[in-house]
Amino acid sequence: MAGRIPPPLPHVAALEAYTPGTQPAGAGWIKLNTNENPCPPAPEVAAAIREAAGDALRLYPEPRSAALRAALARHHDLAEENVLAVNGSDEALALLVRAYTGPGAPVGYLDPSYSLYPVLARAAATPQVTVPCPVDFSLPVEAVAVAACRLFFLTSPHAPSGRGFSRASLAAVAASFSGLLVVDEAYADFADEDAVALLDRHPNLVVVRTFSKGRSLAGLRVGYVLAAAEVIGVLDRIRDSYNLDRLAQAGALAALGAEAHHARCVAEVKATREWLTGQLAERGWETVPSQANFVFTTPRDGEGRSGAEVARGLFEWLESRKVLVRHFPRHPLTASGLRITVGTRREMDRLLEEIDSWPNRAKQP
Amino acid sequence: MAGRIPPPLPHVAALEAYTPGTQPAGAGWIKLNTNENPCPPAPEVAAAIREAAGDALRLYPEPRSAALRAALARHHDLAEENVLAVNGSDEALALLVRAYTGPGAPVGYLDPSYSLYPVLARAAATPQVTVPCPVDFSLPVEAVAVAACRLFFLTSPHAPSGRGFSRASLAAVAASFSGLLVVDEAYADFADEDAVALLDRHPNLVVVRTFSKGRSLAGLRVGYVLAAAEVIGVLDRIRDSYNLDRLAQAGALAALGAEAHHARCVAEVKATREWLTGQLAERGWETVPSQANFVFTTPRDGEGRSGAEVARGLFEWLESRKVLVRHFPRHPLTASGLRITVGTRREMDRLLEEIDSWPNRAKQP
């Protein structure tokens, strides 16, 4: 046996990794594929990081991210025991899967939604329950409420559609579902409503947030969890003991304090989103009403046709023009559409220009 | 059922978290309890972080930490496929446990060694096999080689003793052990020998390293794994897709390039370690020959007595004088000793001064 490599566990051997959106090398790309915020981070963030980048880096970080937790608790009017800071909200999703699900304790999610959920489930040998999205991507309250699973990931606003769910409908799900309802609010900064105010009435509710989108800090990897103290305690026990480094703690704390900058960036993205939706409508394209920092639109060619081939054709054309968007060809509800991040107004102008120069858009003679 | 909080999995409910060493608040402490490096990080690190802390933080990091992997591969004369960068070496240990161990696939480790191993095992519902350390903390080659487990964590240099293991003895274990031999080389920068050169002959060998100790970057959370491409591929599939943020990638890359600074810091720590060991010997205290940046010493009181009570007494005296060291009272091999980080020469002077002013050191009349 000596020298042989032992195999990993069977469910790990069978695993396919999550595929993040392409991060193109080289200059000149317009990157509308991973829902990054077109606004730069608040200037206070760089200042705080520069301050924290000195000799103190030789020392371990504060293991609980205590100052950041306290600030998040104040920000959301909750107690510190209701807050956990994590290395990107993906860490929170992974911790929840590992703590609450496994063989015999399935995980559920909307189909389609964030493609990381099935990867996390498979990595934990957890059976999966999917609840199909209706064609308009509205929330199937009844179907989620009765889903036979220990934990349900509800992406709200929904991705990849951008559809927002009302607080009342989220409350209805939380009240009826017997498991842990995890509302994945990655895009909540851009939405009209969120689930935070429901936490005190629904102890089985968990809200997951990120600094990646609304706070323009995808490169810093900071997210957080809001939940009952009992749930936070469980996640705290299984996380890495130093999950957030000194720079991430300092940068996130500074970002949270920069409220005016945040409000301005969010307002800009929302205004551009509405303008872009109108521009696409003028071209006869249907776009799901978005509460996120992206739109999901169904392109049409010059003959007025839509479908998977049309979407793929436009995706490839845009890519050839160095404009990156996202196409999800494997699901019938998404194959005919493209998910496009709301960028700067200038980036949106370039996007529309490239769409209008797409050869397939020209009317056939 | 509505509104109730579902319980976590039974093995998670039963879990006690790892307890990191105290990070004291307030000034004036001499911190010799968590093996941080007394040298500041290389100046190039802060410069690289400041450079990376700009507007690009709005963008996701490079998901594979590709530049850092390439640099690590060059540094160790390996291929890039043999390297994985992680969010602190603790992440590597956790990934290895989750990928290769579980019910029916036990994990093994030396007893005593790093107290995180049993926590990781319990978090994965993995049975544990412990191999007792001999009283002199030498490597029990035969016992490890026949340990009935899928994966064995071998801390080398050993902690908390500081004992170094020869490359030949590590090779002997790797050749005979049928599972994955994970050599946890957190302290290898301060050792005479390490296991890296054995990788090409022993595909079941995994080496885990960290930037926390040798590179003075405990606050940045960067570690890495060196192993067969097959093992790296498995870990890559189950890690968080963006496990290292932009600042950590940039800072670690800069630290790796600062070879002269690194060599100087390591030489200083080693010189101070030898001097401290001599000073303790002058007081009649036995210290395990250390290949790490800490020493494990057995204090004696004024009557020449040692033991758990003596060690606890000195620990508490030092703490009252704002000098933090580490006492592990629960294990018979460690209860009589203290683990003391090698700090600056000035910190060591203060330590010895406080030791010499310990009331129990005064000869009884």
Produce a short descriptive summary:
Two copies of one chain form a homodimer. Chain A is an alpha/beta fold and 365 residues long.
Q: Going across the major beta sheet of chain A, what is the strand order?
A: 2-8-7-6-5-3-4
Which shape of chain A, going by the Cα principal axes?
Answer: globular
What top-tier CATH class of the largest domain in chain A fits best? Alpha Beta
Unreliable spans of chain A are: none
The helix-and-strand class of chain A reads alpha/beta
The portion of residues forming beta strands of chain A comes to 5-15%
Question: Radius of gyration of chain A, rounded?
Answer: 21 Å
Oligomer: homodimer
Q: If you consult CATH, what is the topology of the largest domain in chain A?
A: Aspartate Aminotransferase, domain 2
What is the helix tally of chain A? 12
Number of strands of chain A: 12
Order of helices and strands of chain A: HEHHEHEHEHEHEEEHHHEEHEEH
The CATH homologous superfamily of the largest domain in chain A: Type I PLP-dependent aspartate aminotransferase-like (Major domain)
Average pLDDT number of chain A = 96
Largest interface: A-B, 90 and 91 residues
CATH architecture of the largest domain in chain A, please?
Answer: 3-Layer(aba) Sandwich
Domain module count of chain A = 2
Proportion in helices of chain A: 25-40%
Task: Describe the sheet with the most strands of chain A.
Answer: 7 strands, mixed
> What is the terminal-to-terminal distance of chain A?
71 Å
